[in-house]
Amino acid sequence: MPGWQRFYAAHRSESFELVSIALEHLGTVAAHPFVAAAGAEFPTLVDERGLTGERFGFKVVPNGVLVDEAGVVRYAKFGGFSIDNQDDVAAVERFLAGADPGASPTPEVPYELAPEAREQVAAKLRLGRRLDEAGRRLEAVAACREALRLDPENLTIRKQIWAAEHPERFHPEIDFGWQQGQLREERAAEVAAGICGPDGCPVPWQAARGPAA
Fold first, then answer.
1. What is the CATH number of the domain that holds 11?
2. Distance separating alpha carbons of residues 127 and 71, to the nearest angstrom
3. Is 13 among the domain residues?
4. Other C-beta atoms within 10 Å of 197: how many?
5. % helix / strand / coil in the chain, to the nearest 5?
6. Same structural domain, 87 and 161
7. 27 and 69, same structural domain?
8. How many domains in the chain?
9. I need a surface site. Which of 78, 146, 162, 185 has the fewest CB within 10 A?
């Protein structure tokens, strides 16, 4: 966020608005430290229910979506969208100049949850949020882990669990190296438990597209 705040400050005279969306299933309080640390002057919305992930079908962050005055999505990149990526910044600057930002990268979708599985995941995340609001953080994280077991490739859920259990890895800076190591450890445990296969999670626990034809 600090980098996008600098970008916002440099372009604020132009006719655009930068809006960030924090995917925080544990609520607004969990998002506040990131916004405060960045000194963000642009609006930040908090998506506690994961509606943006459902709408756009992503399971990773950070993402970037460019929307024109008519509300039409002109460009979208899901996963790896960063102020430190020159191609990402160039797409935004082309868009601000009124030009075509370019073709949106094709998102990688590891699987599609069945409707009943999506509802189970949503219910467990709602439970986690309510438990956290009641000051029962350990139980809240446990509920989120149950949601992750149903949707094991959902890195937005996984990272929020990490932030709750290891806040020092996210403030004052995000430790991406630690995240990579943590993911390897957790993936090995999930393979051993039969939740995932050795090559990833093409079919999540109890939730799949349906039997093969």
1. 3.40.30.10
2. 33
3. yes
4. 11
5. 50, 10, 40
6. no
7. yes
8. 2
9. 185
What residues are paired with 21 via a beta bridge? Answer: 45
Answer with the one of 47, 68, 96 that is the final residue of a domain: 96
Per-residue pLDDT of the chain (213 residues; tens, 9 = 90+): 788 999 999 988 778 899 999 887 676 776 777 777 778 888 888 888 788 888 888 888 889 999 999 999 999 999 999 999 999 999 999 999 999 999 999 988 788 888 899 899 999 999 998 998 899 999 999 999 999 999 999 998 999 899 889 988 987 778 989 999 999 999 999 988 888 877 777 656 544 444 433
The one-letter code for the residue type at 84 is: D
Residues whose CB is less than 8 angstroms from the CB of residue 76 and which lie 6 or more positions away in sequence, other chains included: 56, 63, 64, 65, 66, 104, 107
For 78, list phi and psi in degrees, rounded to 5: -110, 115
Full residue range of the structural domain in which residue 132 is found:
115-192
Which residues lie across from 50 on neighbouring strands?
Answer: none
Do 92 and 56 lie in one domain? The reply is yes
158 and 90 within one domain: no
Q: Do 121 and 47 lie in a common domain?
A: no
Strand partners, 77: 64
